[in-house]
Protein 1
Amino acid sequence: MCLVKENPYYGNKQFKQRQKTPQKNHSVTSYPPLSLDLPKPLFSPAKQPILSPLTVSSRSPSGRKSLSRQGISMPKVKTNRVKYPEGWELIEPTLRELQAKMREAENDPHDGKRKCEALWPIFKIAHQKSRYIYDLYYRRKEISKELYEFCLDQGYADKNLIAKWKKPGYERLCCLRCIQPRDHNFATTCVCRVPKHLREEKVIECVHCGCRGCASGD
Ligand SMILES: [Zn+2]
Ligand SMILES: [Zn+2]
């Protein structure tokens, strides 16, 4: 089982507490920043709450290369030629923060972790970013189609993962790897895709991304 003392995916108490706290005091504009709002997290929250706007770390700016090697798309570099759709300023802080977390996760020396575990935070953050954009557009209807498509085009969310979320049975899918038959014994999918009531082991962490179960009914 897990060798790490502090299991980063265990428990979501902190998350629930955070959800209950009403969002106040965004007096700068008439719109509050659009927060992350995951209905049923597959993963427990990161140690720092996603919402806090001032925790973006600027260390380790590299990382683009090795992420793309792992098949995880990274947002394109901001240039002056890019035209930002209306509403961008409301989601930018959260996206920047998630990107900073991604860079941190990527540069983490992951001492003492199993090889597979080193990638878990990266999958988790990639999931969070896509879910953030997806929820804002499809569920909360708080961003325009233009802004949604901009985010996909710029690599802030994974189109292919989102395409799966629209299909019945895949609404909570953790990552694309967990449904690749070639990545699994006997050409099946990952253990995290098996509904909880059909699993012998009730508490699991899948080897690919650390998912603790993402079947739709779980
Ligand atoms: Zn999963
Ligand atoms: Zn997965």
Protein 2
Amino acid sequence: MLQREMPPADAKGGWLLRMSDNGVASDAGNMLIRCERWPERALPLGYWLGEPVAVVVEAGRDDWPAFRDWLAQVPAAQSELLATALQVTRWERDHRFCGRCGHATRRLVHEFAMQCDNCGLRGYPRISPCIITLVTHGKDMLLARSPRFPPQRYSTLAGFIEPGEAVEAAVRREVMEEVGVDVGRVSFFKSQSWPFPHSLMMGFFAEAASRRIRIDGEEIVDAAWFRPQKLPQLPPVYSISRQLIDTHCESVAVR
Ligand SMILES: [Zn+2]
């Protein structure tokens, strides 16, 4: 598990995670290596197995496997490290200048922060909270298809939380906008980091107050009620969407 405490400024080696702009080193053996002296441009992330860990982005590694594929395969502790490395390196790459005055920024060593020495503005990695919700009616589940999905795939509903909006309100609004269903009780399930590019998925169960579906036709191209015994093709097992569906199926099977 990644220990979220920054190594001291003079830490120069330990573990090194090797990434490219789009992927990770090609097998678990050389993805995360021991390294006495990190490269100059390595970014410390915290501690891994009791030792400092840093990430380095290597150029010209376009053949390395994509992050999404890796996240599906590695254990949860490693996927947290990968997700952190991916978000922090992209944030640093994209925030080299101050958004307020345009001056060059510098990375602070004791936390994930970019400092502007000209105007004092400090920027932190962007995390975008999203709701993801399984709408239920008794045993039935409301699943929907986005136009971006592989053929036959159905999933739960999801959307970004807007500025100033409470999380529960975002659940009700997204469900109403996407499928036109009023929601009663909403209960939190769990959350999952989704670093494409910087989402934090917050999972909820939502009890439908009515069954009539009215899709928006843009974000959602089809939606329907499904029984646990007769499900369409679902998202992969590591996704929070699938965990919501599986958890509901287990809970209604024992009733
Ligand atoms: Zn500035």
